[in-house]
Amino acid sequence: MKIKKEHFLLFLIIFLATFLRFYNIAYTEFKADQALNLYLGIDLIKNNFITDKILSSSVGLYNPPFFHYLLSLPLILSKNPIFASSFISLLNTLAILICYLLLKKISSFKTALLGTLFYAVNPWVILYSRHIWHQNALPFFVLIFIYGLVSLIKNKNGAYLILATAGLSFALQLHQSTLPLTLLLIFVIFWQKKNIKFIHLLLSLFGFLLIFTPYFIFEITHNYYNLKQYLKLSHLPWQFHSDALLIPWQLSTTLKFENYLGGKLPFVLTHPLPLLALDILYLALLVAAFIWLILNFKKRQEFLIFILWFWLPVIFLLFNKTSVYRHYFIVLFPVQFIILALFISNFLKKKRGHKCLPVILSCCIFLLAAYQFLYSFSYLNLIKQKKCFTAEYGPTLKYQMEEVDKNLKAGESNFSKILQQSCQCSPYCYPHAIKYLIDYFKHSL
Asked: Would the pTM count as exceeding 0.85?
């Protein structure tokens, strides 16, 4: 059976994406949030999937229980945190495939492969694709939402509204950064109302309510805690977060990635200026892509979806009443890479007859993708070699597991001493993480 070139290249990119998301997965991050999420997932299984406990978010709101239902899937099979982390990697690998299908629907297979390649090798994407965190599951569900909206517009079929609403309903329960996407959904409903039947709206609403049912039950049984917190937050003064204009662009490159690890990667130290030039080139192409997209959205209706997907969360986070963190922008993945792929493909198509420009741009694409792949590969090797970081990354899961296991085998039963031994390499110490690992090794989960 002859394998088509398209399928072979897609397989190669999916292989790269899978490799980068699973390589050295045992050395992923494991902190308080990861351990608490696992505890809550296990608690859900023990209570026959009826929840009465939810993890609090950084802004004081209780996160909806959907993530713990999702996490219960791997936890039914194994309580090993490496296995649960692998499940998050699997979700993000599947997101790569949805990205390909989305681009293929609106453009050519070459464009789809290009956007998928950029998405597959980006180090920030890989960092947020490998550990147990609510927002790390966002790209999978946001892409389902966007795929539904784009299909509704392209196919003029209102049934896709049901798919889009389902994707957004799940995403909304993962992180509050997805709230602005409800405006995108409402906008598309009014924009495409001639293609949407009443039954489509009814089924979409039913699906939304059904998916949110566990959260509604929790709110009612806990005296509407989140509603009261939202009302408290509404009285806080507005804050202007200028970083919200910079972080989305930074996350497309390798810029400031070393801050997360506490130092530059070895191969970056060897060639800092040429590699910085590649990041600048990436940013220049991305800016050009956004300008092109804005100038051409009237010709291609679906382009407006990508513009709003990017800017609505950015504006929401730019003017916000609480602190804004880098991981709040995971909601944007992979819109930057989609827009860049559309722009480059269009440019190459128009300059097909030109002798030099297509060759130069193709070389630039290869260099950028190769650089980000090597950067990601280098980072994944470093976390295994170093095991423990004094910066935000902290001690790796494998390091903590080894320390806990070593102490337990030595007969140590004092929690404080095990905790102290497991945190020697880093100023960051996570009692919840150590407690979970002790319970795991003692088979008491």
From this structure: yes
